[in-house]
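Would you mind giving me a polypeptide sequence along with per-residue structure tokens?
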Amino acid sequence: MAETLTREAALALLTEFNKEPFHLKHALTVEGVMRYFAKELGYSDEEEFWGIVGLLHDLDFEQFPEQHCIKEQEIMRERGIDERIIHATASHGYALTVDIEPEHEMEKVLYAVDELTGLIGAVALMRPSKSVSDLELKSVKKKYKNANFAAGCSREVIERGAAMLGWELDDLINRTILAMRSCEETYENF
């Protein structure tokens, strides 16, 4: 049986494989968003687990972009990390790099918010405040419709994630803005 991974150990693993501030900030953002949704959706007792999954979801992306969601499974297994974390992190690459489908609500949330946090973050950077604190749904929707804006953030994946959760796209975006507000200080000051 794999031992429980602490946040400190997860952060050490993340920084072993990731050095770019952009990737580290993204990991911290997704960690905070996942923690928010754990509480919001009634999984408060699993908040740490949801956060660790968010923190490690792109473990292999910086060093192994062509093997994203594949190499991280190998890395984590070599270190005896819980298979639930391995499955959850790998599942956000479903229909892109792996055939591991998100099953648990947590995995569906990760799938839905990974790309969306990047898009929302890009919209926030365009604002005078450079913050999500005053960001509204309509501003994100306006940029969302422009395929050239934050082109690396797949609208198809975001929409598939919303459908997996059974949420309307506007609801997903609005809730993710609130989630990012809840942890902005953490990921802005890493």
Remarks:
- The chain is about 60% helix and 0% strand.
- The chain has one domain: 7-188.
- The two ends are 32 Å apart (CA to CA).
